[in-house]
Amino acid sequence: MSRSVKKGPWVDPKLLKKISKVSPGDRTAIKTWSRDSMISPEMVGFTFGVHNGKIHIPVTIIEEMVGHRLGEFSLTRKFVRHGGKIQREIEQKSTDAGKTAIAAPKK
């Protein structure tokens, strides 16, 4: 559910305080657990370590991310793969293609 327009975007005050302490050219990650904070224009160029429940995922903020939430860029679930016969056939084809590329002589 989105936040109402009259309330405006929400950014964690502790996160804003951390941003003010770091210089814009610094590449160190600002660790945060505030996944629901809105990305504001002041955050562009900084790298945030957004917690996904297990580790901090480094997220470098660019202009296209303004207006989104920090949690959108730090996935909480890891996709392994689909199982079954079709998946095994796809994997077999990719390994066969890799073997033929290695065996082929380069000019």
Keywords:
2 helices, alpha+beta, 13% strand, single chain, 107 residues, three-stranded mixed sheet, 30s Ribosomal Protein S19, Chain A
Written overview of the protein:
With 107 residues, the protein is of the alpha+beta class. It has a single domain, classed as 30s Ribosomal Protein S19, Chain A (2-Layer Sandwich), CATH 3.30.860. The chain contains 2 helices and 3 strands. It has helices at residues 13-21, 85-103, and strands at 29-32, 47-51, 56-60. A 3-stranded mixed sheet has the order 1-2-3, covered by helices on one side. A hairpin with a 4-residue loop joins strand 2 (47-51) and strand 3. It is elongated. The chain starts with 12 loop residues before the first helix and ends with a helix.
Average pLDDT value?
86
How do the strands of the widest beta sheet line up side by side? 1-2-3
Helix content: 25-40%
The end-to-end span amounts to: 58 Å
CATH H-tier superfamily:
Ribosomal protein S19/S15
CATH class category name: Alpha Beta
Q: For the CA atoms, what is the radius of gyration?
A: 21 Å
Which series of helices and strands comes N to C? HEEEH
- Fraction of residues in β-strands: 5-15%
The third-level CATH topology is 30s Ribosomal Protein S19, Chain A
CATH architecture assignment: 2-Layer Sandwich
User: How many H/I helices?
Assistant: 2
* Count of individual domains: 1
